[in-house]
Amino acid sequence: MVEGPCLAVFAQRLRARVLRGQAVRGARGGAAPAGATAVSEERTSVHNFLTGHVYRGVETLGKELFMYFDQKALRIHFGMNGSMRINPDGSRDRNGALPVLEIQLTEDTICFFGVTTEYRNAAESEQKVRMMESLDVCSPKFSLLRAESEIKQQKTRMLCDVLLDQTVLPGVGNIIKNEALFDSGLHPAVKVCQLTDEQIHHLVKMTHDFTLLFYKCRKTGSPLYKHYKVYRCRSCGQCNGKITVCRLGQNNRMTYFCSQCQKADPQLVNVSKLPARNSLIGWAYGRGSCSNEHVAQKCEEEWTCMCCTLINKPSAEVCDACLTSRPEVTETQNAGDSAAFNINLMKYPCNEFGKPSTEIKINRRAAFGTTTLVLTDFGNKVVLKNDNQISDGCSECAGPKSNCDQIHNNVYQSGRSMDKHSSTNVTDVASPSYQEPFSLKPIKKKQKTHHVPSVHQYDVASGKPQVNTTDDNRMIRMGHPHCSKHNRLCSLRVVRKDGENKGRQFYTCPLPMETRCDYFQWADLHFPLCNHGKRCVIKAVLKIGPNNGKNFFVCPFGKEKQCSFFQWAKNESAMQVIP
């Protein structure tokens, strides 16, 4: 989803890579309609008047991007899935779509995909940006006081509607809305008139804080989903309770909230006792100190491949998809990142990069190949030696001998259960603590099978990686086939195009479009047939009530042709609903 922080990154790329003062050599727009092989001349001629005009710069206001050409301003809205490419190798995006707008300057070419465009007067657009920039959550001139004043004027409106109103807080999208309300401890249906001044101040602050985190993740290529507490999550990131998913507000936008952590009665919310999300809240306003020890350097961050845009692990030297080498990081970049902490990625619990002090690696022979079991002790601060994997069940240990003996005993005691429940995914298991001087904290163990590619497998419904292996997750994975060419666990997708198959789920190769094979398999062959004899689609109850979140089967046709077929999905743990 393209929200304000994404547009701020797009604008920075344009300022950095496209020089101002270039003349427009040509402009064409409008993707070819279905069945056509070329861009329509009628739609292409709409942008012809740009030819000869000079590019003066770019500005953003919330979810709007303004490009200035002499006295004209081109307003671009990226919608849900819009994107931008500067000097692309080809004329299509990763999904094979043609650009909606292509602007050819003297030295550069800019392509926009999945966007809507509109021409306006440059002076009026600049005036609008000046008037609203103090409300823009992505602007350096953002004013907490003015934002609070604007929200207080929306007395009878629900918070879920106020936060998404681009005339109140430009740049806030559905992700920021859900996470900010969670951090504030407020139910989305609460009205502004029910809040105190302190709660409104905290809500604005949490909205701005998560926006900064959103921006930093998009700028550095770090995955944002690791910081989700409720958005597209099945369980709450704070209390592990069930997340309620519903359509709420004037525009029926998808809303995620935890009924235990977010109170419908604001009087029950004590701002001073709300749990802090992370240390970003402190340093964002300069109210706390930040040591370089808690700042991740470039070489410790997850990195994005320049070719296929796959996000790789910090330890990966080459891209897991296209085998492109990792971009080199100079010492000056690392030093600069540590000095300027205010623009750095903080070490949150989910991306802590500290090295363990004790590590044991044991190889086991499993049914599907050799499995490496890695046990680490984070409690002792002893410098690690280089560990080498030893085959045939042998192991090597670095660290105090007493710790190693304890870990070995723990391994042998749990060996039988490990053989029964071996898995190819990383699993976190806590071991009991000991009362000896070198007591161990919960041991993290990584289990990895050599022949399985080390890629993240995502849960489509929640948008989060499958890390903890549970019985429900295993049931879901059992149905996922592997693609024939790359032998990778397939991705579950849904048909979006209009037609008789719209809404049906299918499996396809998980790699990007450039390297994806042609594997295809329907995933709904076990779904029942409706009264028309068509394969049903699975949906979830979004109304707030006792059945919220339950899955059911209905006719795949629209409301006009839809039959009366209805059936609850019995085995919900093995079902996935793709929003």
What does this structure look like?
- This protein is α+β, with helices and mostly antiparallel strands and 579 residues long.
- It has twelve helices and 24 strands.
- The protein has a four-stranded antiparallel β-sheet with strand order 1-6-7-5, covered by helices on one side.
- A hairpin with a 4-residue loop joins strand 9 and strand 10 (253-258).
- Helix 1 crosses helix 7 (197-220).
- The longest helix is centred in the middle third of the chain and has 24 residues, at 197-220.
- The two termini are 13 Å apart.
- The model is unreliable at 31-44, 279-296, 334-356, 381-404 and 406-477 (pLDDT under 50).
- It catalyses: 2'-deoxyribonucleotide-(2'-deoxyribose 5'-phosphate)-2'-deoxyribonucleotide-DNA = a 3'-end 2'-deoxyribonucleotide-(2,3-dehydro-2,3-deoxyribose 5'-phosphate)-DNA + a 5'-end 5'-phospho-2'-deoxyribonucleoside-DNA + H(+).
- Residues 299-328 form the RanBP2-type domain.
- InterPro entries: DNA_glyclase_Znf_dom_DNA_BS, FPG_cat, FPG_N, H2TH_FPG, Ribosomal_uS13-like_H2TH, Znf_DNA_glyclase/AP_lyase, Znf_GRF, Znf_RanBP2.
- Its EC number is 4.2.99.18.
